[in-house]
Each structure stands twice: as C-alpha cells, then as structure tokens.
Design a protein that fits this description.
This protein is of the alpha/beta class. Helices cover 54% and strands 7% of the residues. Helix 4 links the parallel strand 4 and strand 5.
Length: 470
C-alpha cells in the first residue's frame, strides 16, 4: 500500500476534523490516538472507506509515512505536547518534521524548537483557527518554523486552508521562525477577545440602555453584516440574538449566565504586550471584562448597594443605532491598530520578520476574526509595509476621523446611562493618546523624581535632571 503523506497524533475534536479535511483534499493520512478505542470508533465511523489508516503504536505510525516524515500533533496544549514529543522522537530521523497544531504558548514552542533543531529535526509550531468547522472545511493556518519545513508542508496546508472569497487564495503562509506561528495565533485570539467585547458592549447599550428587544437587534446585526462591519462574529451575533429558548420561550441569549470564561490566549496576549512594552488597551479591557464578569456573586451583592443613573435611554433610538454602527467600526479599527502594532513590536523583539500584510491576508477567511476589514488592512500594509501604525494609513485615518464623533456620542450615552464600556472607552482613549503630541507623563515623571529621585529629561535641553521639589 502507498505510504501516507502525513501522520496525525490525537483524534480529539480538532484532530479528527483536520484528518478528514486532509484526506478530502487527496492525501493519505495515518493516524494514532492514545486511547485506541477512540481511534477505532473514528476508523469505523467517519473515516470508513477513506484513505485514513490507524496505528497501534508510534513505530507503526512512522512505518506508514513517506520520507521525510511529517507528524502533526493535535493534543491538548501543555505537558501532553512535551510527552508526545518525547515518545515520538526516538522514531524520527534528521530531516523529519514534527508539527504542533494546538494552542501552545509561544515560549514553549521556542524552547521545543531550539531543542529539536539541535537534534536535526524540524519543529513547526502551527496556529490553527476556525474551531471544529474550520478544521473540517478550511481553517486559517499560521505555521512557524524553518523554510524547509514550510516547503515540505505547503502542498498539504495550501489545499486544506480556507480560501478567501476575494481572490481564492489559501489562508496560510509561512509566518516566521520558531514560535512565530503560535505567537501570531495568540495575538489573533487577543484581537478576537477585543472584537467580541466591543460587540458585547454595543449590544448592552442597545439592549439594556435603549431597550431594543433581541429580535429587533438580530435584524440590526444582520443589516450591519451587509455593510462595512461584515464579519463572522457579527453574523453569528445576529443568529444568537434570533434564537428562542425552547424552555421559556424567551430569547436564549437572555437565559445564558453572564460569566465569560477564557482558556488563556487573550491573557497571554496582554501579558506579552506588557513584557515587550506594546500598548493594547482594548485587548486588555476585553480580558479584564471577562474577569469582571466572572465575579458574578460579588456583582449581584454590589448591585443591591451601589447606586448609579437609570440605564433607560430616552433619546432618538434610530440615531443611537446608527451611531453605534459607526462607533463599532471605528473601535474595531482602533483595536486592530493595537493588535497589528503589537505584532510589529514583537517581530523586532523576537526576530520573527513578520509580514503584516500576509498575516492580515490569511485572517480574511477560515478564522474567528474573519471580516471584510481584513482585506483593507492587507491593502494598507501592501501599500506601505513599514507602516508604524494602521491609523497612519490614509484610508484608516479617514475612516476613524469620520466616525470619531459617533464613537464619542456612543460613549457619552453609555457613561450617562451607567452602562460599562471598557473596551469602547479604551479604543477612543488609545486614539486620543496616540494623537496627542503632549501627554501628562511630564507630571508622572516629576512625581517619580519627587519621591524617588528617578530624574527626568527636559523639553528644552539635553541631559538628565533632578530637582529637590520641596
Ligand atoms: N476546539 C477548538 O475549537 C480549537 C481550536 C483551535 C485550536 N485548538 C487546540 O487544538 C488542540 C486540540 O484541541 P481539541 O479541541 O481537539 O482537544 P480534545 O478534543 O480535548 O482532544 C485532545 C486530544 O489530545 C489527546 N491527549 C491529551 N493528553 C494526552 C497525552 N498526555 N498523551 C497523548 N495524547 C493526549 C487526547 O487523547 P485521548 O483520546 O487519549 O484522551 C485527544 O486525542 C488544543 O491545543 C486546543 O487548544 C482547539
């Protein structure tokens, strides 16, 4: 029997769907799973009659593979990846390619990459976005590693990746060396957190504030999805708002407990941005909003004693809805400006040589943040690959400038009603800070010098100064 093009270890939700995707695209896949009964169920179920063959051990898996052998690990991130690498390594030869397709922490990928490269192996840390459906029908794929490994994997990855509607191009590219793929996947997830939080705050303002019922909001989001806000997250928001609870007959979204969970990639984005000195206040606000939401019991108790304004809006609803649309688009641009700028700073810090136009291009389809906006971001970085901030591109500068009044109006309304808007507020504050020639950091420096003799620099002369302020 002909050898398999690739071996996949780990037949969980993502592993199984990726295997089916690879096979559907014309490749023979060999598979292995720690719990063999799950592998047998897969082989006899969804994989029956397909070019998918099982293995009962790592040596048996390796024996099925073409050389150089490509093995894709789709196991739980963390110690399972280290365990898998140690178990497979004795059966690999120099030139073989080991791929970790899970949501690994990029510093773990850096460590694994250095260790395996020293042994003559190629290690690819590969971010995969799009969830279960994406894995099956076409995810956005972010592989890091050596150019040689990319050359070997590209024929498979280009086939299985999502294709952008605009030009049919596959949503995959060689991201960069070592942990670059997992780094970019982490930032993708950070941006995803921010996108979701901005939408949630607009929903809160229009629902709790303006009193719009879920069904009406569903129609509004549907309409927004036909314009500049066109994106997967807006599309699913409309579907969620339309869904009725079978038990109570109410909108199902209103029956969902308001405690947002997280698996850590948003937090990693914030932590890393602090480490490398990149301002991403909207992503940070999104992570913090999830943390705040998780304090449900405390919030319930506080809601009985802490007073604020009535959240009832009495103004022009139609005007607020239109302002909300423009504010959401402006704040989304401001959030992407932060995320892309984080990538630019990280690229220099870690020597990743990231191509921001390529990264925006492969986020146009397959992944959770896919949106019409990403085509425009691709174009902006193609016009000027050295763009230091998306806001300095003429088209984006104008897009935010022409919508800033709407964003300010929406925030003033939310503040007046006492509806929290951490992410929307942080997006506007980022804009106002970034465009300020002078910030109050002069006072901060003076205070630091006052209490800690930390010194300061002057605006009118070179040198380091200290004052005895009292
Ligand atoms: N689900 C998503 O939407 C999504 C999207 C993007 C990325 N990811 C990432 O993709 C990876 C896989 O996710 P998933 O959703 O497919 O997970 P899953 O359904 O929980 O499956 C986990 C797989 O890992 C295997 N495994 C766990 N610990 C192991 C160990 N110590 N040794 C060997 N095998 C072990 C399991 O084998 P057994 O059957 O023997 O337990 C199973 O095959 C994760 O890193 C996840 O974060 C997931």
């Amino acid at each position: 029997m002909a050898k398999a093009s690739i071996g996949v270890v780990g037949l969980g939700v993502m592993g199984r769907n990726l295997v089916l995707n690879i096979e559907r695209n014309g490749f023979h896949v060999a598979v292995y799973n720690r719990t063999q009964s799950k592998m047998q169920a897969f082989l006899q179920g969804e994989a029956a009659g397909k070019h998918i063959t099982g293995s009962d051990s790592y040596p048996a898996l390796m024996a099925q593979l073409e050389k150089p052998r490509c093995v894709l690990l789709m196991v739980t991130a963390g110690s399972a990846v280290d365990a898998g690498i140690e178990e497979i390594k004795p059966f690999l030869e120099p030139g073989d390619i080991l791929i970790d397709g899970g949501n690994s922490y990029f510093m773990d990928t850096e460590r694994r990459s250095l260790a395996l490269t020293a042994e003559g192996l190629h290690f690819v840390g590969m971010g995969v976005s799009g969830g279960e459906e994406g894995a099956l029908w076409g995810p956005s794929i972010m592989p890091g590693g050596t150019p040689e490994a990319w050359q070997a994997l590209a024929p498979i990855l280009r086939k299985i990746a999502a294709k952008a509607e605009e030009d049919g191009e596959p949503c995959v590219t060689h991201i960069g060396p070592r942990g670059a793929g997992h780094y970019v996947k982490t930032v993708h997830n950070g941006i995803e957190y921010a996108d979701m939080q901005l939408i949630a705050e607009i929903y809160d303002l229009l629902s709790r504030g303006a009193g719009l019922p879920a069904a009406e909001l569903a129609g509004i989001f549907d309409e927004w999805n036909r314009g500049e806000l066109r994106s997967y997250l807006i599309e699913i928001t409309a579907k969620i708002l339309r869904r009725t609870d079978e038990i109570t007959g109410k909108p199902l979204v209103e029956m969902v407990l308001d405690e947002a969970q997280q698996k850590g990639t948003g937090k990693w984005t914030s932590q890393n941005a602090f480490d490398i000195g990149a301002p991403i206040p909207t992503i940070n606000a999104a992570v913090e909003s999830r943390i705040l939401s998780s304090l449900k019991a405390e919030r319930v108790a506080a809601s009985r004693v802490l007073r604020g304004p009535s959240p009832r809006f009495t103004g022009d609803r139609a005007a607020l809805v239109e302002a909300a649309r423009a504010a959401l688009y402006a704040s989304k641009i401001l959030s992407y400006a932060q995320g892309m700028s984080l990538l630019r700073i990280a690229s220099a810090e870690y020597d990743y040589h990231l191509d921001l136009a390529e990264i925006a291009r492969i986020w146009r389809a397959g992944c959770i943040i896919r949106a019409g906006l990403l085509g425009d971001i691709t174009a902006a970085y193609r016009r000027n690959p050295a763009l230091s901030n998306l806001l300095l591109d003429d088209a984006f500068r104008q897009a935010v400038e022409s919508r800033q009044a709407a964003l300010r109006h929406v925030l003033q309304t939310a503040i007046g009603l006492g509806i929290p808007a951490l992410a929307l507020g942080s997006a506007l504050a980022y804009y106002d800070a970034y465009r300020s020639e002078r910030l109050p950091a002069n006072l901060t420096q003076a205070q630091r010098d006052f209490f800690g003799a930390h010194t300061y620099r002057r605006v009118d002369q070179e040198g380091i100064f200290h004052t005895d302020w009292e």
